[in-house]
Amino acid sequence: MNVWGTAKKISLGGMVVGGLVIVSSLSFTGCLTDDKKSTDTTKVPVVKDSTKTLSVNVGAQGNNTLGSFVEFTTFTVLKQAAAEAASASVDLIFAYSGSASSSAVYSPDAAKAGIDGGAGLDIAKNLTTANKTELKTVDAAKFEAVVTVEGLDSLYASGVVEAKGRLLVSKGYVFAAKSAAGKVIAMKVTDVTTSTTGEATISGKMKK
Fold this sequence. Notes:
Layout: H1 3-8, E1 15-17, E2 20-22, E3 51-59, E4 69-71, E5 76-78, H2 80-85, E6 92-97, E7 102-106, H3 108-113, E8 134-137, H4 140-145, H5 149-158, E9 160-161, E10 166-169, E11 174-178, E12 184-192, E13 199-207
Antiparallel strand pairs: 1-2, 3-13, 4-5, 4-6, 6-7, 7-10, 8-9, 8-11, 11-12, 12-13
């Protein structure tokens, strides 16, 4: 028998004792890698843009302490003189509707032109630019669930447009609006007193 011929076929370890081939086992640890054929399938998670929430205090047309005009860029309130000087920045007006006996929010163009043939608001008459802000009624539960810009856009898309440009509001009322410049904000009236000198707190969710 050709012992050496048999031994040559053993690939790992071993020795010849008394004509027998004793094979030992070897173990290896670690791994071999090929830079050209990486199998790493790790994916970087996609982080969705979150929203921020701000609140403003607004007053109706007879309130001399708080402003009635809201601009969406920084979600802040303007008083009469400042609103007239920068009318192109006015996106929403809070006021008391005498015809409906209710607190209301208006698109500036509707506030200036009037609703259903009625006279416009006196506080809006001197706005050189009266922006058209699209107002929509939205689902309250969906509003509470909004935490991302994607959710905000979805909420706005699902809303129902108010063609007249005015929404009659009360405590807990939710709505969404889109400015002439394309800024979308979802809002909730968290507190309100209804009168010509009344006021309201409006909480808004918007893109950071």
